[in-house]
Specification:
Elements: H1 12-25, H2 31-44, H3 53-70, E1 75-79, H4 83-90, H5 96-106, E2 108-114, E3 119-131, E4 139-145, E5 151-157, E6 160-165, H6 166-173, H7 178-199, E7 204-206, E8 222-226, E9 233-234, E10 245-246, E11 249-253, E12 266-270, H8 271-274, E13 281-283
Parallel strand pairs: 1-3, 1-8
Antiparallel strand pairs: 2-3, 3-4, 4-5, 5-6, 7-8, 9-10, 11-12, 12-13
Amino acid sequence: MARKVYYSKPLKYFWEHLYRTQKNYTPEYTDDQIFEIIRNNILNKPAAAFETAASKQLIVSGWEMWRMDAKGELLHVFFVDRDLQDFLENTTLSDLEGIKDFLLEQGHNRSVFHLYSNKQSKHIVFQFALHIPYESEGYAFSISVEEDGSIELYYSRAENGGRMSDKFYKDVNNKNDEISLTHSKMFRLAINTITYMSCFPECVADGVPKNLLERSENLSARNFSLQLSDKVKEIEGSNPSRRPHFRKGHFRHLRSKKFVNKQGQVVFVSETMVKAKAKTVSTSPEIDRFGKSE
């Protein structure tokens, strides 16, 4: 029998510390009622020490993602290979402008309410949760393409949340403090997960991993399993116990009309290809995992 693997729980803080606590107090209330109660409590309670309007907004954003999850509307992605996280976090965003065009083409148009500006507008949005093998806390991401064409990322892990924009990515990516490193790493992980799934659809499978150690996962949710492609590995022997070495490269959106058969697709371009030493370019047809509910 194959060994069972436990996976991290995205939005665990919101499920266990906010929802479950309130549900124990008011078991007769619906999830919609609990959502409104907690949301109002977050917004209206007196500010604690070092708490700001921005920090409250981060909590509200995470709580709103919990509501999507509770309704079964949040896409869940299970990384079958733990090393996939390292690859995606460290793959550069050399074609960020091209990837922005790809997001505009593939995203789902949704109304977004900006709490403190009191405005609601339409945005291209990608929202999904990541489950990582052998970790406790998972990740939840919400990426929106703003009216000015910029990318806005919200991310949640445990009780911590953060925001990041492509406007500041280059500057933040050049810093070495812990907060900047976290912001830039989360930005790459979120963006590269989307492009990876498009570039390597053969690595995407419906449902949860077969080796999942079930605890409280919602098996009726929008679940996908994502494997590590051999095309991004450097072949250095065949010892399966060693951690893989990854090709250095980036994902690129082919926008030019000269790509007659591949225009609009996302490809992975290895570093050796960039240096004109043609070695590997991995391509694949487009997929629409994130854009629409299935």
